[in-house]
Amino acid sequence: MAYHHICVKPFAGALGAEVSGVDLAALPEAALNDIRVAWLRHLVLLFRDQSLTSSQYLAFARRIGEPVEYPLLRGLPDYPLIVPVIKQPHECVNFGGLWHSDTAYLDAPPVGATLLAREVPPVGGDTLFANMYLAYEALSHGMRGLLDGLRAVNTSVKADVTRTREDRLSDAGARRRPDAAFEAVHPVVRTHPQTGRKLLYVNYGHTVRFEGMTEDESAPLLQYLFTHLARPEFTCRVRWQVGTLALWDNRCTQHNPINDYSGHRRVMHRISLGAERPR
To answer: Catalytic residue at 269?
Structure first.
């Protein structure tokens, strides 16, 4: 596909592309249209060397989608829609350090999200992304037929993953008690409203069982799906630099920030974009 106002270079076969030739602080509308097309095609876009103030970062995000609050964390004092995600040198656990789709426990999770690297460790701290279109399409015909009729329960307090989320909320500036649970039921297979493609929509971070089943009954199939969706051929790896901005489609991707930089500080600024009920 030809882009007229940006340069797009894929960096993995499954998903992910770097976009160059643009300054996100002064982005022409024509270039923005190209970015929207590239986003739907590659799911994860990277923009390097973006020296954005908080005001400029928020202004760019608003041109992609309506920023929404993260339900558990406080934003910056002057920019409450920008959430700082910080891991200090002494901390052993990173926030959200497992495969997940952001806030699937909400009735209308974010359409997308963007992350801007402010401070990175000298090595490590990469983020993995996975393509949920490919995860669904690689399943057998019989398995797809089974999953198409199922719905899953997602919660913000899944017992197996509290160490990566709720136990750190007090340090990260929680806006409510860590035990204040959110819960939502969504299709196991959802359809992307813009591409029309089906995709797998369960994740290890939030999905606890299938609707109408117990957790024990659901566990074998869910564990298979959690392992399946993270197969290497569905993934890409993002290596951060200060000034790198990532934009991803939260509907059809999952991500996993790697916790391999003990003793070093990492500071990212995050904005959630839009809200949409999965169908």
So the answer is: no
Annotated active-site residue in 34, 42, 102, 118: 102
pLDDT tens for residues 206-230? Answer: 999 999 999 999 999 999 999 999 9
For residue 272, give the amino acid letter. Answer: S
* 100 within some domain: yes
Query: What type of residue is 167?
Result: D
100 part of the active site = yes
- Inside any domain, residue 202: yes
Assigned domain for 279 exists: no
Compute the average pLDDT of residues 5-15: 97
Task: Choose the catalytic residue: 165, 255, 266, 269.
Answer: 255
102 annotated active-site: yes
Interior angle at CA 75, CA 74 and CA 79, nearest 5: 150
Cβ within 8 Å of residue 159, ≥6 positions away: none
Instruction: State yes or no: is 148 an active-site residue.
Output: no
Q: Which domain holds residue 171?
A: 7-273
Number of residues assigned to the chain: 279
Asked if residues 32 and 43 have their Cβ atoms less than 8 Å apart, the reply is no
Q: In sequence order, what are the residues at sequence separation of 6 or more whose Cβ sits closer than 8 angstroms to the Cβ of residue 80?
A: 69, 74
Cα separation of 269 and 82, whole Å? 6
Q: Which residue has the tokens 């060397």?
A: 49
Number of domains the chain contains: 1
